[in-house]
Amino acid sequence: MQLTNRSKIVSNKKMTLVEKIYLPAVLSGMSITVKHLFKKPATIDYPKKTREMAVIFRGQHVLKRDENGAERCTACGLCAVACPAEAITMTAAERKPGEEKLYREEKYAAVYEINMLRCIFCGLCEEACPKEAIFLTDKTVPSTFERDEFLYGKSILTEPLNSTVDVSKRQTKDTLEFKKDPHFAHNILFDPTKPSKKSTKH
Question: Which helix (H) or strand (E) holds 135?
């Protein structure tokens, strides 16, 4: 019984001496290699050279500080809940008197860790954060041979005091306009010389 009409008769032609030593196949392959020597290479000399990253590229995370240098994160846990890979873990702590310049809110993250081997860089953590504390930058996560080195803590994630990480490209126009309004409690910075003001808008 014939199941298809695509059957093809295969000839049992014997190979010549030249074909047996695969000389035509080798010359054909070498010709392709020689052609590529005169073409523009598709790769770059990384890491000496790097390609320009797209604006929407999502790379290594950063825990942002406010304009006074205080940490924005309040350890609310919304980023950990939103993370589909369950890569984020944290431990909350209460702010002590005199630490207002270190931590923006009364509660802060004493421990904040992200397992970069589990992270899928989806960006849901920065969308879930109500304090604009975590963002994904254009910095790539360096590779290493040890698994423990991919567990990033606050020492790696927290924004340095002497240099600001620009995340304005990852914020919408409405968010940038919202941050300019000083009446919202979200935008009020701590000032030890003035009593705290309650928000006039909700």
Answer: strand 134-136
Compute the distance between CA of residue 45 and CA of residue 104 in angstroms, rounded to an integer: 43
Rounded to whole angstroms, the Cα distance separating 189 from 130 reads 16
Write down the domain spans for the chain: 61-187
DSSP-derived secondary structure letter, 138: S
Distance CA 84, CA 168 (A): 25
Does the pLDDT of residue 136 top 70, yes or no? Answer: yes
pTM: 0.69
Summarize pLDDT for 98-116 with one digit per residue, the tens.
898 899 889 999 999 999 9
Of the candidates 60, 62, 63, the one whose C-alpha atom is nearest the C-alpha of residue 139 is: 60
Half-sphere exposure of 177 (CA within 13 A, CB side): 3
Per-residue pLDDT, averaged over 90-104, amounts to 92
Separation between Cα atoms, residue 100 and residue 198, nearest integer Å: 17
Q: What is the CATH number of domain 61-187?
A: 3.30.70.3270
Please say if the pLDDT value at position 187 is more than 80.
no
